[in-house]
Every structure is written in C-alpha cells, then in structure tokens.
Amino acid sequence: MRRRAVPAVLTCAVLLLAAGCSSGDGDGDGPAGWNERATPGRTATASPSSPSSESAERAAPAKGSAEVVRTVATGLDSPWGLAPLPDGGLLVASRDEGTITRVDPATGKKTELGEVPGVSPAGEGGLLGIALSPSYAADRTVYAYFTSASDNRIVRMLHDADRPAGEQLGAPDTVFKGIPKGFVHNGGRIAFGPDKLLYVGTGESGDTGLSQDRESLGGKILRLTPEGDPAPGNPFPDSPVYSYGHRNVQGLAWDGSRHLFAAEFGQDTWDELNAITPGGNYGWPEAEGRSDDGSYRDPVAQWGTDEASPSGIAYAEGSVWMAGLKGERLWRVPLKGTEAAAEPQSFLTGEYGRLRTVVAAGAGRLWLVTSNTDGRGGPAKGDDRILELKVS
Questions:
Q1: CATH code of the domain containing 187
Q2: Is position 272 within any domain?
Q3: What is the C-alpha to C-alpha distance for residues 263 and 201, in angstroms, rounded to an integer?
C-alpha cells in the first residue's frame, strides 16, 4: 500500500488563532504541526438501531465489498466536484485552477470546458462543487459553487460542447451569494435532490457562532429553487435554511427512499454522518458527535477525525459510501431506513491517499476522486485520479 506523508506547508499558530483548526478541521487533516489530537485511533461507531417509521425497510448486509476496477483518468490538479453527464462523460472541477474539465471515461481523455470567472482560490476555498441542472439534456446548464473575493456563491453557466475547448462555458449567472468565506470551512457541495431543488452544504468559515444563528448562511444545509430562491416548504419562513448547527458540510446524498444524508467534519473528536431532518439542529459548536442534549440531532455514525475527515458521500447498494481525506479510506455505512444497520466498514486504507469525492455510477459502481494535489497530501505519480469501483 502506498502511504503518503502529509507535508507541513502552513503555519500552525496562525491558522489555529484565526480559525480554531485541528487535525480534523476543514478538508480533513491540517499539515503536520497543526493541533493534532492527543488521543489517536478512535474507532468508527454507529448509532444503535431502534424501532422507527423505517423499521419495515430492509437492512443492508453488515458486510459489503469495494474493488477498484480501473483508473479512469490521471493527472488532475486539485479535483473537487464531479458531475456525470448524460452521454457518459464526467465533468470535474479544479479547486485551485478554477476550471471545469470533461473526462472521457472510456479513454481518460481530458477536454477543458473553460475557466469559471471570479474564482478566488485560497486555503480550502476555490472552485468546489458542481452539479447539472435537472433539465440538463434540454438546457445544458451547469451549476458551480465557488469562493470569490468576498464570499462563497453559486452560479450557473451554459455548456456548449460544440465550441472549441476552453471556450465551452457561457458567462456565469449568479443565482445565490453571501455565503461566508474563510481560509477554512467553506463547505462547497451542491446537489439537486429528488425534488429537483438545489441543496447546498456550507461551512461556518471558522466562526463557530454562525452555525447556531439561523439568520446566517454559514454552517447550514440550504435548500433553493434552481433560480436561487428559498425553496417552497422550507422549515423556516422565507429562509433558504434547511438544517443548521453544522460545522462544515461537504457530503450530500439521498437513499432510494429520498432520505437526505450529509457528511460533516468534526474538530478534535468526532466526524459525522447525519440523516437530515428539515429544521434539525445538529449541535455545532455546542455538541460534536453524539450528545445527551435532546435538542440536537445525533449522527447516524461517527468517527475519530484521524480515521475520516469526510468530504463526499454517495448512496449505492443499500449503503452510504463516504470519502475520507485524512483517513485515506472509503467508508461504507450499511443502512436500515435512516439508521445504521451495522458498524461502518472501511476499504482502500492508504492505497490511494486522500479521497475527496464519491459519486454513484449505477449498476453497483462508484466514481471515486482522489485529493493529493490539494496542498495537504503527498502526490504520487499520476495523481490526482478518478477511479471506478465495483461495490456491494
């Protein structure tokens, strides 16, 4: 297995004072010298199953499998968001270059669509999540979440594949702005749900007080119309906020029964996989992981930050699959309804380094994106890459 050392590339003291970072912060592990936890090696734990409205749903098997079938593409620079196209191609966003590239999964050929104007990469910010319009086949619209000079925002652009490489993105139309930005904790995952509404994972940008402030967009999951308005039926009147009390959400996925799950970075103790309830308070900064306070929602499963630091998640074969950055592994959480059916199971530990994004590819397959060129990993030859996995 190829273990990658994480180089010390930033100054610990400045980041700790400015953002309260730790070994589990933001994009997972800070470089060596950040506030490493004194108690390494916490084990992954799932919330015990109990009777619920989902009790009639079949539980996923306790044990599954994950096998890398092939390497789809190599040589990607700071890849972050991934969006499969209807024609089978894959769009991938480069956080630091601010570009979107099409990858041909059959050949690995890369074609740059263009650069997204206004991206201001720094720290964990830059061009992050991308998503296709629910009507992409008709409107050819790509949505992108990025850090600008003043905030995090969401834009949409037309994708004209008939134009020359580098010139295929139309002018961006800003549909939502004002999400707090920081050197860390910018959130960034966007996804259209089964209801064809846009869900957005945000971070508290290092300002922990934003998470419990329902007037702030930081530390939230937002639910928007494709035009960027608060979605009808949101839990708080005239507000885009769908859930709050989050630290840094970078994973969003739905199961076959339309339940929303989200992955969240902890600080010093616990990373989380949460089942999202409209209007739910997930506790940060008052609670990290499970809590005795009934006003906060407990996670479905939790991990020590050395073992996870989760970014993207996907649902396939009855389980949530979660990409770990500092943990350098892929986690499987078998589900029964919105509860864990068994203890989490890990795969690929240390084999491909930091793992950023995982997307369901259908027929028991996943696309998995590595993240070793993000300034916190130790790139190997060919990094970063997209892998195809067969899972069960």
A1: 2.120.10.30
A2: yes
A3: 9
Q: What is the mean pLDDT of residues 78-107?
A: 98
- The CA distance from 334 to 46, in Å, is 10
In a domain, 379, yes or no: no
59 is a domain residue: no
The closest of 357, 387, 390, 346 to 44, measured between CA atoms, is 346
pLDDT at residue 248 in the model? 98
Q: Is 139 helix (H, G, I), strand (E, B) or coil?
A: helix
Domain that holds residue 265: 12-47+77-289+298-307
- For residue 245, CA distances in Å to 29, 85, 205, 317, 364 come to 22, 33, 13, 30, 33
Strand-strand pairing, 345-347 and 339-340? unpaired
Phi and psi angles of residue 132, each rounded to the nearest 5 degrees, phi first: -90, 145
Would you state the structure tokens that stand for residue 387, as one six-digit string?
């892998």
Q: How far apart are the first and last CA of the chain?
A: 22
Under the banding of pLDDT at 50, 70 and 90, the label for residue 38 is: very low
Identify whether 120 is part of a domain: yes
Residue 341 DSSP code: S
Q: How confident is the model over 328-346, as pLDDT tens digits?
A: 999 999 999 999 999 999 9
Q: pLDDT band for 10, please (50, 70, 90 cuts).
A: very low
CA distance 235 to 233: 6
How many CA atoms lie less than 13 Å away from 318 in the CB half-sphere? 16
Listing DSSP states for 210-239 in one string gives GTT-TTSSTT-EEEE-TTSSBPTT-SSTT-
Q: What is the DSSP track for 70-119? A: EEEE---SSEEEEEE-TTS-EEEEETTT-EEEEE-TTT--EEEEEEPTT-
Number of domains in the chain: 1
The radius of gyration of the chain's CA atoms, rounded to the nearest angstrom, is 19
